Amino acid sequence: MKKLLFGTVLAGVVAIGAACSNDSMQGHDMSNMKNKTSEVSKQLPSETNMEVLTGKEIHLTAKEALLQINDKVKLPVYTYNGSVPGAQIRVKQGDTVKIHLKNELPEPVTIHWHGYPVPNSQDGVPGVTMNAIKPGETFTYEFTATVPGTYWYHSHQESAKQIDKGLYGTFIVEPRNEEKVDRDYTLVLDEWVSNPDESNMDMSGMDHSQMGHGSMNSMSHDMSMYDIFTINGKSGSAIEPLKVKKGEKVRLRLVNAGYMSHKLHLHGHDFKIVATDGQPLKDPQPIKDELLNIAPGERYDIEFTANNPGEWLLECHGDMKGTDDMKVKLQYEGEKGSTDKANATENLPVVDMTSYGKQELGEFTLDQKYDVEYTMDLGTAMGKDGMVFTINGKTYPETAPVNVKTGDLVKVKLVNHSPTDLHPMHLHGHFFQVLSKNGKPITGSPLIKDTLNLKPGEEYVVAFKADNPGNWMFHCHDLHHASAGMVTEVTYKDYKSDYKPDPNDTTNKPE
């Protein structure tokens, strides 16, 4: 279960960014972790206080550690380079990068480059694009960073469990002609379980390595077990303030690594949403006192000018138990001003991304001719072992793939028929343009994304060009839902993979 918080475990990890949800854990004895885990207490350089790795050759190690979430809670976690979130990788557009991942965990892992159009062989999906990296092994990912923006990386091996335990980090590709800002902060949202023994399901004795489809479904509806919300791996007063000086231009890169949506409110300042899922928006207009809703897997870059001295908050709105502790202070250096007050229940409108920014023609339109059209009905059903989540009535691997060939123009209609569940649908290896919502065309900036959140009853039409040959997952990023069946693939008929999965290898668990 995600990030099970064991208050009795001691040690600390300087971390920066966890966020909103989930379950993770066990299958091996954590009782000796204090001996196995090095304490990480160094102050890490960068505006975000997380370790930042730059250059064309990067080294990551997947290993166990202990995460101090607040003054009461420490828990055993899985990490990339000893912190949650893991080291931020920052590269330049155009660089060919090599990332060496060494696995020092007691189980297999991978890295999936969430939102990034890497070659299929580098996508990190075990049993689909590669074998999971076994304990003690090292694997090198290599690709060219062609598209600038804010992305993240995470394990795709038993991902509902491993991301929940902390196996994620951020991946920033700086554009060749970057518009400079004075401060650049990355904030990763996540959720954790402080007392799994008291949650409504008993995960304590479960060996997740034996869990298959539907395994996570006992918890898929009751997200109340996630009672601690974090920003950069910290909660409440443990979250480090964001320092600014009057007149500075500030960028916040907001990443949701959890399994719940979070509505964020920036107090005291106008801001612009300059990018979503790493892709820039056309002429974004200033917003004030509106909530930015960030679904699992999504990223939003916002920018504002520090023109209102004092101490302000960026806070999560809602009524979940962990909501009040998902807030970070914005502090002006050397300036007196008003001191802000939290108000997580204030009734504010949510920004409508379908009408935000300047309308102009994107690459695709609703009425042009498409080579492939696919309808994806997202549903919920009772399976023999509990709740399952379906695409067109089937669970993975029985779901019908989206069959394409290189160069095809593809239109997908997504409809959420689940009565109560949100489904943030994520497409690997491609960006898609959102064309309509509930039958109405998009009226704002062209909206280019890789993760799209559907509330119950909602319908979206999206389009993309099949320009990255391979076999690519298209799945719900509430990974409980993916592990319980809500996965399909985009398969290229003209692609031949060099990777041949061994049918007898049971270690690959792509969901």
TrEMBL record:
It comes from the Bacteria. InterPro entries: Cu-oxidase-like_N, Cu-oxidase_C, Cu-oxidase_fam, Cu_oxidase_CS, Cu_oxidase_Cu_BS, Cupredoxin. Keywords: Copper, Metal-binding, Oxidoreductase. Residues 67-177, 208-320, 387-493 form the Plastocyanin-like domain. Gene3D superfamilies: Cupredoxins - blue copper proteins. One of its GO terms (molecular function) is copper ion binding. Pfam families: Cu-oxidase_2, Cu-oxidase_3. This is FtsP/CotA-like multicopper oxidase with cupredoxin domain.
